[in-house]
From TrEMBL, chain A:
Lineage: Eukaryota, Fungi, Dikarya, Basidiomycota, Agaricomycotina
Keyword annotations: Chromosome partition
Keyword Acyltransferase: no
Protein name (Swiss-Prot/TrEMBL): MIP18 family-like domain-containing protein
Native species: Kockovaella imperatae
Domain MIP18 family-like per the UniProt entry, residue ranges: 57-128
Annotated segments matching region Disordered: 1-28, 180-203
InterPro entries: FSCA_dom_sf, MIP18, MIP18-like
Automatic annotation (TrEMBL), chain B:
Keywords carried by this UniProt record: DNA damage, DNA repair, Nucleus, Repeat
GO term, biological process aspect, one: protein maturation
UniProt protein name: MMS19 nucleotide excision repair protein
Function: Key component of the cytosolic iron-sulfur protein assembly (CIA) complex, a multiprotein complex that mediates the incorporation of iron-sulfur cluster into apoproteins specifically involved in DNA metabolism and genomic integrity. In the CIA complex, MMS19 acts as an adapter between early-acting CIA components and a subset of cellular target iron-sulfur proteins.
MMS19 N-terminal domain residues: 40-299
InterPro entries: ARM-like, ARM-type_fold, MMS19, MMS19_C, MMS19_N
UniProt subcellular location: Nucleus
Major subcellular site: nucleus
Automatic annotation (TrEMBL), chain C:
SUPFAM superfamilies in UniProt: WD40 repeat-like
InterPro entries: CIAO1/Cia1 (IPR028608), WD40/YVTN_repeat-like_dom_sf (IPR015943), WD40_repeat_CS (IPR019775), WD40_repeat_dom_sf (IPR036322), WD40_rpt (IPR001680)
Official protein name in the record: Probable cytosolic iron-sulfur protein assembly protein 1
WD-type repeats, residues: 10-51, 69-101, 140-174, 185-215, 262-293, 310-341
HAMAP family in UniProt: ciao1
One Pfam family hit: WD40
One of the GO biological process terms: iron-sulfur cluster assembly
Similarity-based family: Belongs to the WD repeat CIA1 family.
GO cellular component: cytosolic [4Fe-4S] assembly targeting complex
Function: Essential component of the cytosolic iron-sulfur (Fe/S) protein assembly machinery. Required for the maturation of extramitochondrial Fe/S proteins.
The keyword Zinc-finger belongs to this UniProt entry's keyword annotation: no
Record keywords: Repeat, WD repeat
Keyword match Repeat: yes
Amino acid sequence: MSSSRPLDNVNPTIFAPTSASSSSRRPKNARALLWNDALDNYELDSSEEEREEIDSQEIFDLLRSITDPEHPVSLEQLRVVNPEDIHVAGNRVLVWLTPTIPHCSMSTLIGLSLRVRLLRALPPRFRVDIRIKPGTHQSEHAVNKQLNDKERVQAALENQHLLQVVEGCLATASQRGMPSLEVKAEEEQGSKPAARGTMPWVA
Amino acid sequence: MTSQDVDRICRTHVSTGDLDPPADLLLALNDGSIILSSVVKALGEFLTSEENAVRLKGLTFLSNIVKQMSPGKINRAATQTLTNFYTSKLDEFDALVPTLETLIVLSKLPTFDDETAITVYKAISEQLNMKAYVQAVRHAVYSVLDSLIALHRKALKNLGAEFLENYVKLVDGEKDPRNLMMLFAMDRVILLEFDVEPMIEEFFDITFCYFPISFRPPPNDPYGITADDLKLSLRRCISASPHFAKMAIPLFLEKFSTSTGPTMKDLMLSIAACLPTYGAAAVQQRGNELWEGIKVEVLYSSDTSIEAAGYQALEALIATIYPTAQDVPSGLAQDVIKQCIEFMEDPEKSQAIAAVKALAAVVRASPSAGPYALSQVLPYLFTKFNRPAVPSSRGSILAAISSLLAAARSVYGAPKAKRHQSDERSLSPFRETLVDVLREGLRTEDLKLPAAKGTVSLVEIPGLIGRSEVEDLVRSLNDALLNDRDEQVRSSVVQSLLSISNSYSDIVESTTLPLLFHNLPDRAPSTSDSDTRDRYRRTLKSLTRLCVSPSFSETLFIRILTKLELLSTAPMIENSDGDDVMNGEDGVDERECNVAYSFELLMCLVEVVEEKIASKHAEIAKYFDKIIPRLHGLLVGAAAPRIGLSQPLFRNRRILSLVADLTETLTRELSIERQSKQFLDFYSAFEKGQIVTICHDPTQARGLNGSPLRHGAASAEGDLIALYASTVCSLKADAAAPYPSADAFFSSKIHWAVHEANNNWQLRFALWMITFFVNKREKELGDSLDSILEAVWVKEVVETSLPLETRCRALSVYLHTIKGLVVLRSSVAYAALERVIDVLKLSSFDPAFVNEAAASFGILSSTESRDKSREKHLSTKLLHAQKLWNYLLPRLIEGDQDAKGRDRLPYLVAISSLLPLVPASLYLSDFPRIFSLILRSLQLSEPRQRTNAVSALIAILETPNHSTAVDQILHERAGDMVTSLLQCSIRDGESSKSSGILRSTALRCLAMIPDVIRFDILRSQKAVVIRDLGRTLDDPVRAVRKEAVECRAKWFRYGAGA
Amino acid sequence: MPLLELVQELPGHSEPAWQVAFNPSRPLLASCSTDKTVRLYSFDDRSFSDSLPASDDPKPTFSLLSAIETEHKRTIRSVAWGPDGRTLATGSFDSSVGIWEEVDSDAPEDDSEGVFKPSTEIGGEKVVSGAGEWECVTTLEGHESECKSVAFSSDGALLASCSRDKSVWVWEVQPDADFECIAVMMEHTQDVKCLAWHPKEEVLASASYDSHIHLMFDDPDGDWCIFQKLHPKLPSARTQSSLPELSPTADEKAIESLNIPPLEEDETVWCLAWSPCGRYLASGGDRGGIRIWRRKGNQPDSLFEEILHTAAHSRSVFSLSWRKGGYLASAGGDGKIIVWKTDVIEDGDGPVAPRLSMNPVAAVREAHSVDDVNSLSWCSREEGRGFLLASCGDDGGVKVWRLVRD
């Protein structure tokens, strides 16, 4: 049950997740403002689809429910990713991630999980830059360089062990802030997708 | 049957080795024509034979007889002899199984007395060496013991120590789960009923040696014994005797250090189960150590289920030591509380949260320690709350207070609570402070949520706070309700108001409601003024939840109607021509703001009504007259012709549809008599032109002369069909009809639909009216139906001289009539359908129309949720869908096969339009053919038909454990399936060729493939699928993108495990 | 100004393609990918012009010769041809190096040259009939982790490989596919991204994540050793260019609003390219700049110095290829391919190579639609032929371009 190495952060502060996808900040045209989405039933003709751009809220929804490698809680609950730390312009995405503690050796793994999730969930036209929030990690710059080396990311994805851990973290990603549906399963074998050893891909 | 016969039978059977007793023998035994002893005598020579084999045969034969004959026929003597005989055989290893089986039977007989029981028991314990036997034999032995203990307990008790000693020896070392289940049950009985104290150590050994159980059932274990079954029954027996305490508690303590995961959880639950029986005295001694063990888990375990079990253990611990209000909460309780309070030093840490839960457990546990805990922790929290180290921590502090209140509520506020606040007075000293804290919480950002939760608990604790305090709190709640922007906060505020209104509805009604209504403006705010708009939306949301409660509903309805009437006088200048809602561009004028506002007001009313109906509020019908006439009045008034460009609000079709829905829902709730009256009123309004009969206020009908359905009536008047239709649709079949002749009435509606309806919006209502009318009045219409349908078909549908549009209208009238009939499985309907099927042949002559005809089968299988919910109210006969499907499908398939090239298309269109009609299970029967049809349908151009095909696929893939045949076909065609689904999922260029629904459905289906198709089949395609899905991630519609993401994630994982 | 025109888009890989390489002596193009295959394309090349072709000159036609399903267990990161064009080396993330040879290439040697073979269907894709059967003759084990680059020396006598394990290995090529490791250099502090042999001499350059470039040779009195460790110093100079492709797009402007902080650590050196004359070495960096290093003497171990640093791409430069006539092609994470003209600024000759100027002369945006361009390769076969440039990208696509005069 317990992971073979001591946890980096034994008892992180856990925050309540915010109510699921509060996309209220999205800009709408005047009519959309007036007729809120709930009334689609009464739309008289299904209007021609207008493009809903991918915004930071949508990207946050992709990331919020990824599970922390050490604890059975989401990155959102640990405030590792925050809506206001995600920025989109054109085909570029910038994500700031905030490690729970400055010496967290999991940061690279968390970053990798984010990277993989976005690699899989965003259209290929997007270029993603992941950065550690300045001053929140001892080896901030090293981790940044690490996370943005596409060759290493590719190699990491071909490392079965590492991939398993990442898949473990991503398994919950689809919840998008909604409460988990299979609490049962979790309860039985208890704790977490345990990440053992140091990251093999950290040179 | 003579004794010779018996001899013969016995001899032949034993010698031939056929040891099944013949029926006639059993018969003879059962009707008493021969007695068992004569059989025994007949078998004598074999039973005593020197040859083991022969002896065994004889014995087994006898056993089979005993097992099969009716128990009543074995008299006391026979029982004696047989028992003695078999007991004497216990030492014959080979004979053991039949012997034991027979003893089981015998031991259950009424003629089997205590002495016999004892002899058997002694024999078993002296002669059997359990270690030597296999599971089945041991199981048999235990079964004998079980029935002895069940039926001759007293006698065995009298054996005293002797019994217990032997028992312990017998069961020692058992490992098999099936046997253990049995033993644990026996152990429990013995522990409860026998004097085990002198032997307790031995019993400790034979029970606790299994604790904690770590058992993994074999993959497909036929006995289906789970780890939890074993844990539970072991728990029941180790918690059976207080004498275990001395040895058990040290064991528990020792296990704390060694257990993890599930075993730790088991340990906690076992402690929770045992301590109460073990009793205060014993537990007290090791109380502190137990607490230490529990503490570690609840504070540091990352496994929520262990943590929860920990609190149970703690609760049991405290409850055991401090059971009554008289027990002084000194010692352990003091320590626990003290330590918990220390952990609360930094309230945001996860330990602090755990500590609160621990204290809550204490509160629940004991009428003495509980109040004491509160008396200690609440003041502490209050000071912290008023002078927090860091401001941010106040939220957690208040949350702590709330969860303590919740615990108190679960003790005092439960339906039939044993403990009462009025006796314990644990919270009374803090009453005012609590109210103050909560009030402040409700006023402060980030504190409202816990405050609202706390308030609910506080209010629900009987006899704690008084009216004035409630008023206080409600005032703060109202404030939060009106001004807070956080959805969660508001909804829990509403929750507390609701629970308050259970006991103080008048307070809520006199303070909260007026405030809320005051927040509803008389005129809609402009588009730019989003604050006001958000406020009225928040307000309506709250009202919707509050006013479901009977005490508030009426007020709400009246207030909303008044607002609507006010709005109806709003300026009517129109920025564009008639069809306001249609105009796509962003130019939104004041009028539309008012329309939208009115719509949301109505929506609130509708939701309350629906909620009340859903929760079966009896009084609902009485609101009909308060609501419906006034609304109809508004709409009629708006429909009246106007001079110039003015466009009254209530001409808006969104509003019309909504009111129509409401009319339908409420009319359904009316009595037959009342419905008949409605029908009459509407009849005279729409057929005789006395429109005033449906108005609340006569003046509203001014300017309207004649029926809204008359030829040449203005479009706005025609829109009123919505009200007529919704009324007719909601009538029960036996509501009195106002018209002279049903078919005349029906024909006139058909005529109106085909020739008079101004547009599709009006047509849709007319069609619903038609469907429901034929459906409810089939009998009345009788034979005329046939001729009416034929007339429509011949004179309109296939009358090529008519414009295509008219023909298509007639066609959908035709099918909507059929729709009302097929659900009754009426022959008329099927006959009428033949015409439609025939016309499909003609695609080369009349392509546009035939395509329309093919698609029109979709009318019989609605997919839209609103249509479906309406259809629920049609009267139907069983299996109508299946019958229709089985009727149409073969014909369509035949047509498809006879046709060539493009001429096959109509049949495919028809089939795919029909697919939603039935569950997948139905087409699994004829799977190979249907499946290829579905795959072909994925190539059709019309998105709706492709959507049907995909949905059908989903249904197929969803149907659990379909046959191997189906599975095989699925695997054969998997490649094509995936390719076509990909095509459906990707949106390129012209949107007419695709739809958001199609794409998201296709993606959902594609996401199911990895669960259904073996990886090796699609391995080669995986990379391509993933690459192409990359394009779907960029879909313009957000909802589609969501599906795309999940689907692609699924495909990334596909085969990754292997 | 010349133009870079698309000659043909080839049936590419199902997963990202990492490197393309033109066969130095036969009309063959090789590409490798994460899909663990190597694809070979043959083409007919009739243009012998030594100067830029015109865009209406006949274009060569490429077609898929074969898609080799290799034994590699992970991404094939690198492919390299032996100078004789008969041997192919593959470097894979599974840490091994594969050596490939054509089976029964009894097909007449030179006259088969440039003869375009009619194509047939195989696996739904055009595949040239006959030939193209390649087999793995040996696998070189030794690296502890992902092998990232392989390269044959100019005369084919040596093969070099490098890896994430920070090491650079030099193998001696012996008869019948026997390879012997003669040197292992472990002086990089991070993974080694790229290797490049001097076009004429046995001098090897390696580039690494540790932001250094190492130069090594076979010390006559000793073993293989590193004789210089280059570390970039020059600040990057903006390029003035009239090329419309290089002016920032609306999207790129929008992106500036994010002001994404640059990576603080020294930048990875992703790629290297020698000038055909062997007097200059070009390197491409993670921040999108191209640096030119010149050789200060004509000894094997003459030192190099940095003389130029040009801002080129808006993201990492992943590949450089330098062609006779001073055409240096660069490509990278911004999806652009840029062709630079490098000119010697004569200042009296001597052992020290003169200074150099470089200017963009042609470019394409979104060369592989939205995806990164991972590799470029000029067709260097028979000096001055065709001006063909191959590229591959994360979309798995392989494309051939041609530099034509305007």
